Amino acid sequence: MSHQDPLPPLVWDSRRVQIQGFTTGLHQVEWLLVSLVALYLVIIGTPDEGGWGLVVATSAYFGFSLMASRLSFFGERQRWLLAIHTWVMIGFITWFLYRTNGVTGPMMSLYLLAVVTSALTLGVLATLLEVAAIAACTLLLFHLAGGSVMTPDNLTLFGTNIIAFLIVGYLTSALVNAIHVSNRMLLDMASLDSLTGLFNRRAFDDLVKPIHAMAQRSRRPYSVIVIDMDELKVINDSLGHGAGDQAILSLARQLQDCKRSSDLLARYGGDEFVMLLPDTDADGARTMMQRLIAVEKGDEPRISIGVASYPEHGDQFEHLLEYADSAMYHSKSSGGNRVSIRGHAKADG
Ligand SMILES: Nc1nc2c(ncn2[C@@H]2O[C@H](COP(=O)(O)OP(=O)(O)OP(=O)(O)O)[C@@H](O)[C@H]2O)c(=O)[nH]1
Predict the structure, then answer these.
(1) I want to staple 308 with a disulfide (CB 3.0 to 4.6 A). Which of 81, 180, 212, 320 is the partner?
(2) Is the ipTM of this complex over 0.90?
(3) Of all protein residues, whose CA lies closest to atom 23 belonging to ligand 1?
């Protein structure tokens, strides 16, 4: 069964969580860089020429990191912000190496911080481009230092550094990718029902919150529908659990087919499904469910349906769910295969 396209996105989407996590880690990397540079300046001393400029640049870089840590973007924009962080990091390291004449020294490995940051957040391709940018900066540093990279010693040093950056960048990206894939699998296992592939109760409850908040802000209606299969126990007992599973799957497919892409559908428990229809009042939800009931079902089990709507029947999702549930029981006690709306005594068969 195809996955639903959730609107809005899952609150605990792994990519977003991952990027939020990396953002916190990013500031720690930047402050580590500032600490290493500050330690160098204290132990080795500021260079004679441009020493104060370097102190100002280090302070400015620290200020940038502090300021950026207060910004919070999500999704694609967050990735651009992370990319800008790595470019600024490369620029700052290049400036530091230029001022300290460090292109042939051990401080060249500071570039590893930018490579690792990029590999953690931006993927293999962006990291390869960052290594290319670092290679260009290194060539520029050789040029500004008045030397040539074409001497055997410099060429060896240059090659060793760039190969090390490539290896670290590639392996870190690969590792992060593996972690990302397993995160996604765990998230799917935690959010999807294994039999039907629909959202489970936990995911549904999470996804409802932003939809409810949006409806409250815009004063737009939405409907909660509880759908329960009639007599599943009889099928299980007479035809076996395999037939019961097939009946559940078949109902899941019918519900999936009748919903819009913005509607939320979940298997809430054994034979109980819940739908949330944004921008739909109780009459709209009833019309939709009556169409489902009108479909000739042959030997398939009947279903009982209850509807409650925001804001007509309540302004808390939990209450609406209870109301839709008791409306569903009203349908069941009236003979099943019908839709009942909260507060309407008469069920529509
Ligand atoms: N085959 C199968 N059965 C399940 C599954 N989940 C729950 N059940 C069974 O479904 C039955 C549900 O029983 P009830 O809640 O009494 O529902 P019902 O038999 O449909 O009766 P009414 O809802 O009163 O019409 C129980 O026997 C559960 O064991 C499942 O994934 N597969």
Answers:
(1) 320
(2) yes
(3) 230
